[in-house]
Amino acid sequence: NSGPECSTVVTYAILPPGNWWVVVLPDTFSGYPCGSGRNNYVATIDCLPVATGDCDGDGVPDINGADPFCCSCICANDPFCCVVHWDAACAAAAAAACDKDCNANGSLDTLDVLLGASADCNGNCIPDECEPRCDSNCNPTSCSSDPDCCWCISQIQPFCCAVSWDAICADLAFQICDQDCNCNGTLDSTDVRTGASDDCNGNCIPDECEQIVAAVAPTSASASL
After folding, report:
1. For 54, which of 4, 12, 24, 139 is 20 to 30 Å away at the CA?
2. Which pLDDT score, from 0 to 100, does residue 3 have?
3. Contact 101, 60 (CB under 8 A)
4. How far apart are CA 23 and CA 168, in angstroms?
5. SS3 sequence, 153-182?
6. Which among 31, 87, 29 has a CA at the least distance from the CA of 55?
7. What mean pLDDT, rounded, does the chain reach?
């Protein structure tokens, strides 16, 4: 829809070879007449090649599994794998990324990356939201845009860097990283680390962004008759 009423909808289907009709219908007409410009719908169709298992076309199966977008994703990031030869590095990348749904959104990770539904800053076909922001030394990984986030997480939950990055760590990163709650142009984690903002409860959220509830002692009143 070219107007403001409807958002863009992305869907996909795996179809066998043949001729197909695509029909686009609006959810609501909202009473706008034809030609008003408020009911113009545009369908953009992208055809992604379905993996045959032989990504480089040399007659030797390269991948196994049910991920039809594996070749497309791996070779989009490393054309050598399909244009020249599918080698051990290509196979390792496919084993790490293909046939997976790490973000549990009901869509294969490779398709999320190909459609742009998930960012993939390091080009490994694994959605960024599924990868650790911090390494084992609590230094930012290549996908981190918040330089002090890992320091914050190490202060709150050392386990994340010292032992393993798990769902708790990912949730912490979601709450803390890349935030500027006080709108001062500096990330909250940097405000806390440099002392520009107080953080009395050690959660790496500047105190000025958190509601302070004062304890009020109950009072009693007596009425005179």
Report:
1. 12
2. 47
3. no
4. 43
5. HHHHCCHHHHCCCCHHHHHHHHHHCCCCCC
6. 87
7. 79
Of the candidates 126, 182, 179, the one whose C-alpha atom is nearest the C-alpha of residue 149 is: 179
The total of other beta-carbon atoms located within 10 Å of residue 111's CB is 21
What would the DSSP string read from start to end of 76-94?
HH-THHHHT---HHHHHHH
Band the pLDDT of 192: cuts 50, 70, 90. Answer: very high
* Poorest-pLDDT segment among 32-41, 68-77, 125-134, 168-177: 32-41
Location of structure tokens 């043949």: 18
Quickly list DSSP for the chain: --SSSS----------SS--------S--TTPPTTSSSS-------PPPPP-S-TT-SSS----SS-TTHHHHHHHH-THHHHT---HHHHHHHHHHTT--TT-SSS-HHHHHHHTSS--TTSSSS-GGGS-SB-TTS-B-TT---TTHHHHHHHH-THHHHT---HHHHHHHHHHTT--TT-SSS-HHHHHHHTSS--TTSSSS-GGGS---------------
Residue identified by tokens 């007659």 is 59
Tracing tokens 């990912």 back to the chain, one arrives at 170
- The residue with tokens 């989009």 is 76
CB 208 within 8 A of CB 200: no
